[in-house]
Amino acid sequence: MDIIEIASAVFTLTLVMDPLGNIPLFITALKNVEENRRIKVITRELFIALFIMIFFLFFGKWIVRLLSIDIPSLSVAGGIVLFLIALSMIFPSQHSSIGENSENEPFIVPLAIPLVAGPSVLTTILIFNMKDPGNLPTWFLIVFISWIINVAILAMSSKIAKFLGPRGLAALEKLMGMILITISVQMLLGGIKKFIVG
Q: Please, are residues 17 and 143 in contact by the beta-carbon 8 Å criterion?
């Protein structure tokens, strides 16, 4: 795997994680947490998400094999999930319940799961690994770099939100959604092509 493929995989996984789109959700979920503790909570939740992603990277394929799921099916399912995620980025719901009734400090849900290590992220990691199962160290590096990018963006979530403003964040999320739709369609068509050829 060359540097361009690695960069492409990092870019795709980072887009799927959607750190910029998660900024307002993180802010909402942490609104009842003291300002000086928010960074600690974000760091803890991101480490939990990293653990889940690494676990799925190493053991996800065995779970899939146990369920007798093949790569074309996974690719099509992943493409559909990513497409729906991308649509929600372009046409966000006006009513979000995340963090609305949270009186305590969030733990694992909803920050680590599903906002960072959600179904679309885990599916993408699994598809990456099953395409080239012998290249596990490279996939680990890709997951780790994408996670570091998320850490950097979400740790500065308050500052980024203030700088871009609600309209700037919304415009950026819609742009990322458009890119993600292209990636999801490619995954969907790739899965269908493998099914037809197979």
A: no
Phi/psi region, residue 74 (left: phi>0; alpha: psi -120 to 50; beta: rest), is alpha
Can you tell me the distance from the alpha carbon of 86 to that of 169, in angstroms, rounded to the nearest whole number? Answer: 15
- Over residues 98-130, the pLDDT tens digits come to 444 445 788 888 788 878 988 778 888 988 888
Nearest to 71 by CA among 135, 131, 132: 131
Q: What is 130-145 written as a DSSP string?
A: HHSTT-HHHHHHHHHH
Is the pTM higher than 0.70? The answer reads yes
Asked if residues 81 and 193 have their Cβ atoms less than 8 Å apart, the reply is no
Please count the residues of the chain.
Answer: 198
Q: Write the pLDDT tens digit of every residue in 116-174.
A: 988 778 888 988 888 787 889 999 999 999 999 999 999 888 888 888 888 887 887 78
Helix-, strand-, coil-residue percentages of the chain, each rounded to 5: 80, 0, 20
List all residues 6 or more positions away from 155 whose beta carbon is below 8 Å from its beta carbon. Answer: 39, 42, 43
Place of tokens 């999930």: 81
